[in-house]
Amino acid sequence: MTDVRVMTRDDIDAVAAIRVRGWQTAYAGIVPPSYLDAMDAGAEAERRKEWFDAGGDRVDNLVSTDGGEVTGWAALGPYRGEPDDADVGELYAIYVRPDRIGRGDGRALMDAVRARAGERGFRSLRLWVLADNARALRFYERSGFASDGTDQIETYDGVPLKELRYVADPA
Fold first, then answer.
1. pTM over cut 0.90
2. Angle CA 80–84–86, to nearest 5
3. Which residue in 14, 37, 110, 156 is deepest, having the highest Cβ count within 10 Å?
């Protein structure tokens, strides 16, 4: 059974591994292999621990668990783009261990993210997704998100990739 709770410092190593493996799985064939191969879960964990120890309280980090084992991670907080509107939230990331995809962890995390966004008073929730990530697009659309027609280009190891902005009501 999947449960969702607030991330603790003890979860950071598992979260870093999930994020790195999630990128390497989800973005294979989209993001250049050189970028994906350079990702390091240990270095990621150290950065996250520094952030956590500094008291980064603008971001809510949630983890999904099964039998106490961390199976997924999501992060949300204030929208980082313009306009600077305190009522707009952003889903910064949501990743599930690749062996857990399709088992409800992502849905449980998304439900918790949307509930938390509502608790924080966000009137809308935004996210950015790579346009070529068909699996993520389907997941977000099934979760009630839709493109608002805004896009941007992010560059990974010199390769420009299009991202789409998706929007939903919080809960």
1. yes
2. 90
3. 110
